[in-house]
């Protein structure tokens, strides 16, 4: 397992978010992104999770709700990586994967696109 401080990992998540094309980033609505050290006990290998209502499922009733939440898990990511470059790539893939869920793209399609 590679070692990386939480602060350095958070910078990688921030950089991955900065790489989202501006036209796409402008469409992200009511989402907060967090970094947690460990995934839930129920799925300790989870690298990230999107919790919320995808844009494709929001109707005219949507409003006054707490932001959707994307969480990126540091320790599971570090456990599967051998180099800093691997961490950078995995964080990028995970961030894109979770943002895609916000846009209503499911896991099957993400795997087809290489973001599984």
Report on this structure.
This protein is α+β, with helices and mostly antiparallel strands and 116 residues long. The protein is 42% helix and 14% strand. The chain is built from five helices and three strands, in the order H-H-E-E-E-H-H-H. The chain has helices at 6-18, 22-25, 74-80, 84-102, 107-112, and strands at 31-36, 48-51, 68-73. A three-stranded mixed sheet has the order 1-3-2. It is globular. This is Metallopeptidase family protein.
Characteristics:
116 residues; alpha+beta; 3-stranded mixed beta sheet; 3 strands; 42% helix; globular
Number of helical regions: 5
Helix content: 40-55%
Radius of gyration: 14 Å
What gross morphology would you assign? globular
Elements, N to C (H/E): HHEEEHHH
Distance between the termini: 21 Å
Low-confidence stretches: none
* Content of β-strand: 5-15%
Number of strands: 3
The largest sheet, given as strand count, sense and whether it forms a barrel, is: 3 strands, mixed
Q: In which order are the strands of the major sheet placed?
A: 1-3-2
The assigned structural class equals alpha+beta
Mean pLDDT: 94
